[in-house]
Specification:
Length: 111
Amino acid sequence: MEGLILEKGSRIAFVVKNTETGYWKAVKQGIDQAINDLNTTLGYEGDAKIQYTFEGPKEETGVDQQVNILDAVVSEHPDVLCLAAIDMDSCVAQLEYAEENGIPVVVLDSG
């Protein structure tokens, strides 16, 4: 975490391929631990803590559901968006919106 700077109260949004499999549940546990460690390291408490959301469809075939989730997430203007897209082509409009609005995007577990 050395050199990582996130403002107090930053919001990180994770939109993943699904939320039901053991793999993504383990990913969520890792994120939770990392965010807790980051808050502890930076001394952030209460409203100053870095927050995150973790959302996705129930199945990896839920492309339309993921796009709808992504629409809602980017409209809330998170400080960072982390995306594991089921189908990158279906997310082009949302990624363009993120770019136009200065929302950094980290793509993970996707082609």
